[in-house]
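Researcher: Good morning. I'm working through a list of sequences from a screen, and I'd like to move beyond sequence-only analysis. For each chain I'm collecting a predicted structure so we can compare shapes side by side. This is the next one on the list. No need for commentary yet; just the structure.
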Amino acid sequence: MNPRRAVVASLVLGLLSTSGGSSARQPTALDLLGRYAAGAFDAVARQLADDVDYGELLRQLRRDGPAWIDSGAPDERPRRELAAATFALEAARAGAWHEWKIIRKQPLMCAENGECYLPPDVLAWQAPPLLLEWGCALLRAREQPLPIERWWQLAAVAVAQRAEDPHFLIGDPNVGRGIEAGEIVNRQDEIRHLDHATGRFPDEMRFVLAQGIARDGPFPDEAVTVYRALEHHPDVGGEAMARLGAMQARQRKPAEALKSLERSEALTRDPYVIFLARYFRARVLEQQGRHRDAEAAYRGAAAALPHAQSATVALAALVFRDGRRSEAHELVRGMLAAEPRPIDPWRAYVHADDRFWPRLIQRLRAEIAP
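Model: Good morning. Structure tokens for this chain:
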């Protein structure tokens, strides 16, 4: 053999024999699920957020998950069902920002006579939302939901809201608007997850509020109806009014917006909602040129959640333009130095109930822990 080729062959064989990646077995869905059910929650969650083939994970869960649930003792079945559903839920959340759905635009179809037709768009769900629905279907198989399922459904809605996809929650947002607006053709493939959650727990007002949030952009009139219906509810009325006020501000209805935001603050003690009500109020006032009132509202928002970025930066900009530069620098310096820095309600606004995720997943894990 040519000496140079012998050296190359020796190097290649050496690499193949020492490479761990070529022979290491990737954990299966049941490997991960077994560890998850045994209480290794954080470790499995880290793996799910790594380089995961979510499609393969879904395929294996569909194939092997039911047998894994059946393999336990009868009195273990509720815990194993919840473990499998929550494992799928955590996988869905981990993969949601990597892949969620594809809307396929169809090519224009033209006949020989020159007449053309644009077919409707086609919806194709990716693995993460289907993982979420696999877990949902597993729990819905029980005729009467167990109490812990309410927590699971709340967490599932939070995951879907984090994905920023009203389509998954309520169906095609362009229905009835025609092909040019992007209406899809395969509506039989819609999931409409909020129908599942509300059907299981019709008295859960966060699911009703979620109906309004999902319609806030595509169906504003319907969103207003939901928000107003919740105005007097002691749990979600404050947030409903804050979101209504924000919508009215976007619609350039400042008087109505200010009234709704004032109502919001009167209905709640939740710092998150109080922050939003004051912050949105400040923005409306600033747009009206009422800078002193806007400053007071920004300060109120910053007092509700100190060092939150949106209110602090807006307040600093306002006082800077007023010539109080040293105060503006101090505001920004204090915000940057804050440890830990708070989650900004405005930046998390579109993700809605994802702010509850830590508490929801902790409760579910506590129920699963052996």
